[in-house]
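Follow-up to my earlier ticket, as requested here are the two runs.
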Amino acid sequence: MKYSLPELRYPAESLAPVMSRETIDYHYGKHLQTYIDNLNRMIEGTEYEDMSLEETVCKADGGIFNNAAQTWNHIFFFDSLTADRKVMPAELEVILKDNFGSAENFKKEFSSACTGLFGSGWVWLAMNSEGKLGIYKESNAGNPMKSGLKPIFTVDVWEHAYYIDYRNRRAAYVDAIWEIVDWDVILRRIRQAK
């Protein structure tokens, strides 16, 4: 299966000032494209050639896992964002309250995980087999699907995600990201995961 870069659901400049057009051009348009190109080259003639991207993430290791997971993670991350600033749906507020005490407490815990992850990686909101939501820190290309969890939301905390706009200020990037989260997408993923 040949993978290609999906089209964004929003114009590249529309996430500014949280995420600039330059960041989208480099992070989505060039950085993610490199993972996709590497993955396509690496899986040719292997057992992964006909697998879905999700299957490859769950079964592969080494370079194939790194490129497959980074491809999956980035697409999932960018699909979680919106140019239309949205209010969190009441149903999602209740779900987050049940799991984290409140929606604000969820944001606080998630942000803390993002700023506390040493080095490069991803922070995830994911659901376990009992339907409980948790926050998980993964280094490098880590993805909670490898542990049988269902991803709901993620934030990329590799330096390439924020250095153009925020330089070394990861906390400022994480604080700003909440302004462009598509809460409707998050709620839909929770419903689908149950």
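Run two:
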Amino acid sequence: MGLFDKFKGRKEPESQVPTVPQGAWDNAFKANVNFYGKEGEEPFGAVVLTEGVETILPVAPWAKYGLDGKPVRDWKLVLVSTTEQGILGMLDYRKAMDPLRPYLQEERADMVLTQGLTLEQIRGLLK
């Protein structure tokens, strides 16, 4: 925008307005990282995404979390339904991030904020 445009009352084009309401990250549930496994088997990490809950998920938990100082290679995204009151299924975490992308509100560094998914949207992730 030039100097003469300012004199003519023209405004600078507005920058990209954030689509996420202020405070959404503060109000969202921060998903916990849990570890499971049977004795003699390699443990896996699990992060839960619950129906209807805006959730903060780690982008790459394998890079940030470990068990007893050792890296955990296998990670699952556990999909829970409040409607059906239980676990609908589990996805490989690395593969789940791509189909989850349309439901992400925002990404910051190593975390993402999901919208609250409906039961149908969660089922769609399992297909």
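The only thing I checked on run two: The first strand starts at residue 29 and ends at 30. Let me know what else you need.
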